[in-house]
Amino acid sequence: MKKSKEHKISAVFFSISILLLCISLVTGLLPGLSFSIDKICMYLGFACLGLGLVFLKKAEDK
Q1: How many CB atoms lie under 10 A from the CB of residue 46?
Q2: What does the alpha-carbon distance between residue 62 and residue 48 come to, in Å, rounded to a whole number?
Q3: Following DSSP, what letter does each residue of 1-62 receive, concatenated?
Q4: For the whole model, what pTM was predicted?
Q5: How far apart are the first and last CA of the chain?
Q6: Which of 3, 13, 10 is closest to 57 using CA atoms?
Q7: What are phi and psi of 34, to 5 degrees?
Q8: Distance (Å, rounded) from C-alpha 62 to C-alpha 24?
Q9: What is the pLDDT of residues 3-39, one digit of tens each?
Q10: For the purposes of burial, counting CB atoms within 10 Å of the CB of 55, is it exposed (0-12), middle (13-18) or buried (19 or more)?
Q11: So what's the pLDDT on residue 2?
Q12: Confidence of residue 61 (pLDDT cuts 50, 70, 90)
């Protein structure tokens, strides 16, 4: 079964969101770093997760 373009895009967004959320977790645990890096990575991770879900829903509707 051939995967559509939306499946590939959603997989990329899910991978990026996992990476950003892991970076957010690691920077949140380090005491000397600024909290702005943590918040930026966390919000970008949630945004990429949402975009991945949108593209996955779009692929399932076709």
Answers
A1: 14
A2: 21
A3: -PPPHHHHHHHHHHHHHHHHHHHHHHHHH-TTS-HHHHHHHHHHHHHHHHHHHHHHHHHHH-
A4: 0.85
A5: 14
A6: 10
A7: -75, 145
A8: 34
A9: 789 899 999 999 999 999 999 999 888 888 778 888 9
A10: buried
A11: 65
A12: confident
**44: Cβ–Cβ under 8 A, 6 or more apart, which residues?**
20
CA distance 56 to 60: 6
Task: Assess whether pLDDT exceeds 60 at residue 41.
Answer: yes
Number of Cβ within a 10 Å radius of residue 20: 20
